[in-house]
Amino acid sequence: MFSASSYTGTREENYEVVIRQLEALITGEPDWIANLSNASALLNQFLDNINWVGFYLMRDGELVLGPFQGLPACVRIPLGKGVCGTAAERRETELVPDVHQFPGHIACDAASQSEIVVPIVSGENLLGVLDIDSPSLNRFDEIDQKYLEKFVQVLVGNHSS
Fold first, then answer.
1. Which Pfam families match (predicted)?
2. 33 phi-psi bin (left φ>0, alpha ψ -120 to 50, beta other)
3. Contact by Cβ (8 Å): 84, 101
């Protein structure tokens, strides 16, 4: 069901396949951590040219490391700090072509060159962020943003606070 050969269409079609795969993985499973774990593994298998993919979860007013794929990462990120904290505070996706040009970038992995962070919001509640890093400049674009935002909405739709 999750082989690389599943991804033979356009980027948009491939993202739609991944979103359907996510739905199949999480439907009927109420555990948030289990679902985020499978979601990070699914994205890690699907996305090329990335070196980290995972989640930071809101805990007591700050972002705390959640399920991820990649090297060990920063454990806590204050709101408004770095790409993740900025996306969380603004509740807007941050698409960063060159992390070294982002004011206050937090370098958890020196190999990271570009990043996309999608906030996870349910109603008025900020649940956390999806964070994806790449060792290449300009790795992410508006297509990635559109479909990763849809991916996050599937997670939110299955989550019960």
1. GAF_2 (PF13185)
2. alpha
3. no
pTM: 0.93
Give the ranges where 27-158 is alpha helix by DSSP (H): 32-46, 82-90, 142-158
pLDDT tens, 19-35? 999 999 999 999 999 99
Which residue has tokens 């990649």? 70
The CATH superfamily holding the domain 4-158 is GAF domain (3.30.450.40)
Sheet holding 52-59, edge to edge: 76-78, 62-70, 52-59, 125-134, 114-122, 94-96
Domain ranges in the chain are 4-158
Total residues belonging to the chain = 161
Helix, coil or strand: residue 116: strand
Letter string b/e over residues 13-41, b meaning 16 or more CB atoms within 10 A of that residue's CB: ebbeebbebbeebbeeeeebeebbbbbbb
Percent composition of the chain: helix, strand, coil (DSSP 3-state, to 5): 40, 25, 35
